[in-house]
Amino acid sequence: METGFNKLPRHLAIIMDGNGRWAQRRSLPRVEGHRKGAEAVRRVVRACRKWGIKVLTLYAFSLENWQRPKEEVDALMDLLVEFLQSEKQEMVENGISLRVIGRPEDLPSHIQRILAETIEATSQNGKMILNLALSYSGRSEILRAFERYLKDARQKGVEPGGLTEEVFSSYLDTDGLPEPDLLIRTSGEQRISNFLLWQMAYTEIYFTETLWPDFTEEELAEAIKDYGRRERRFGRIPRQAASCGEV
Ligand code: IPE
Ligand code: IPE
Ligand code: MG
What we know:
This protein has 247 residues and is an alpha/beta fold. It has eight helices and six strands. The chain has one domain: Undecaprenyl pyrophosphate synthetase (3-Layer(aba) Sandwich).
């Protein structure tokens, strides 16, 4: 596929939504939508790696998603295991390093083990970071960061008064990662759903009606091209914006 991107997001984040509706429209159980959704995940990871995107963050399971029916949660957990098992080798071979944000400690212990093994096996890889948001909530991440910061400040005997954005960011789960340049949300919903609240202060957003299982490499390319046409101003006027914060 001829892509011809004039600008690539360094960090792409995706809210992969619409699996349930994809299944519903076909009178299939919701879990079938999640299964198809996992195929879309594989497609998107491969395309991002091929095009040279450095960080891909996927919203795979929110803290709020625990409230779904148990069968659905169990099916999502099984699919996560399948994904990790089937992709581990490919991640190793393709220089992809796995990372997790959220509360992986909420996941069943066998999944925590597989996650830890995969993170360890891919930790030296430097081509791309695949960052999975699991049991993730932006507000909870901010609270956890703040608690950790306070604990540190107390231990070091530092007055918490001079906290900067930079220091605070280093307590977030995304420490060391650039902020997302582009967020894609599929399925027509136009909301953030508690994703990367702090980090998305200046992220460009691309909404599409496409349901996640139908999301293709072509549409991903379309979203990236759209991003390439945007002017990011970060609060400044166009003439100034040309030289600030862009990659
Ligand atoms: C996204 O699809 C997958 C997860 C939230 C885990 P949904 O399951 O939310 O699909 P819809 O929104 O019900 O169609
Ligand atoms: C957001 O989708 C979470 C994930 C994609 C994992 P939801 O389907 O859970 O979000 P809402 O409930 O429509 O806001
Ligand atoms: Mg949804």
